[in-house]
Amino acid sequence: MNRVVMKFGGSSVATTDKIRDVAQVILNRKKTCDQVVVVLSAMGKTTDNMIKMAEELSKNPSPRETDLLMSTGEMISASLMAIHFKSLGIDSVALTGFQAGIKSVGSHRKSKIDSIEPQRIVDELRAGKIVIVTGFQGINASGDITTLGRGGSDTSAVALAAVLGADCEIYTDVKGIYTVDPRVRKHAKKIDQLTYEETLEMANLGAKVIEPRSVAMAERFAVPLYIALNTGDVEGTYIRKEDDMEKNVITNISKKDNVLLTIVNESFGKESRITECLKNLADGDVNIDMISHARDKEGNQIISFTTDLASKALVEEILSTMEMDFEVVVNLSKVSLIGSAMRNQVGVAARAFGVLHDEKIEYYEVSTSEISISYLVDVDKENQLVNAFADEFNL
Ligand code: ADP
Ligand code: ASP
Ligand code: MG
Question: What structural domains and CATH numbers belong to the chain?
Answer without folding.
Answer: 3-173 (3.40.1160.10), 253-392 (3.30.2130.10)
